[in-house]
Amino acid sequence: MIETEELRFRHGDERVLDGVNFTAKAGEVTVIFGRNGAGKSTLLRHFNGLLEPDSGTVFVGGDPVAYDDDSLTDLRRRVGLVFQNPDDQLVAPTVEQDVAFGPRNAGVDEPERIDRVLSEFDLDSQTERLCNTLSGGEKKRVSLAGVLAMEPEYVLLDEPTAGLDGTGCRAIGQFVESLTDAGITPIIATHDVGFGLTVADTVTVLDGGVIDYRGDTLPRSLADRYGLRQYVFESWTAPDGDLS
Ligand SMILES: Nc1ncnc2c1ncn2[C@@H]1O[C@H](COP(=O)(O)OP(=O)(O)OP(=O)(O)O)[C@@H](O)[C@H]1O
């Protein structure tokens, strides 16, 4: 379980999190919705210690997060964060080096683990590719593989469907399912109501610096009130039939 108690955090003068009480149960898919700038990424970054609260506490597996170097190294092995933009995540020149980077840094020498993860993400034939030559969707697969190579207990996904086509979005849905099947707990920040409600066991909404809503789904009236993207172009409907 990942929880926060009265979590408060400012970026400069801006109070972004203002007493967040959040819970993500182990084994469940928890989705965090919220409008642009609501603080979803800021909240996720507290779960693996990338940010330290101004006040309040983050608990992982029941224990309060500690911020000394050893504790943070251990925390980041247990809690993997997949950034919205893969370019913020990829650190090594080639695909294989990137996927192996985290485990090597953590002193894990298990080439078979890297081979297995590369194969799971269908990257076996791309191992020598330079990351900066990959498409956005391919970069996303490499960044997911790099996080999974750490064998985490929790995976935090920040806007995982951003920039992906329909096939890519469906693949992310399957990926989320595969995480729970493997006993890994996903926590997802997204604007994408269709995706979020499809994968969520628990839905939360971050608004006004607090968790303003929690439930097993999100009524449309609330999605609308929270300004979530699904309903912006509601008058548009796809034409039926063959237009060729
Ligand atoms: N490093 C930073 N320095 C200063 N302000 C920041 C920083 N990161 C985020 N902010 C500000 O904090 C607020 C919350 O940002 P955050 O990225 O957490 O929101 P979000 O809900 O993830 O937004 P989006 O949906 O647009 O990605 C925003 O007003 C943003 O401008």
From TrEMBL:
Domain ABC transporter stretches: 2-233
Compartments in which it is found: Cell membrane
CDD domains: ABC_cobalt_CbiO_domain1
Pfam families: ABC_tran
Recorded GO CC terms: plasma membrane
A GO molecular-function descriptor: ATP binding
InterPro entries listed in its UniProt record: AAA+_ATPase (IPR003593), ABC_transporter-like_ATP-bd (IPR003439), ABC_transporter-like_CS (IPR017871), ABC_transpr_CbiO/EcfA_su (IPR015856), Co_trans_ATP-bd (IPR005876), ECF_ABC_transporter_ATP-bd (IPR050095), P-loop_NTPase (IPR027417)
Entry-linked PROSITE patterns: ABC_TRANSPORTER_1 (PS00211), ABC_TRANSPORTER_2 (PS50893)
Topology with respect to the bilayer: Peripheral membrane protein
Record keywords, A-Z: ATP-binding, Cell membrane, Membrane, Nucleotide-binding, Translocase, Transport
SMART domains hit by this protein: AAA
Role played: Part of an ABC transporter complex. Responsible for energy coupling to the transport system. Probably part of an ABC transporter complex. Responsible for energy coupling to the transport system.
NCBIfam families, alphabetized: cbiO
Protein family membership: Belongs to the ABC transporter superfamily.
Annotated protein name in UniProt: ABC transporter ATP-binding protein
Lineage per the UniProt record: Archaea, Methanobacteriati, Methanobacteriota, Stenosarchaea group, Halobacteria
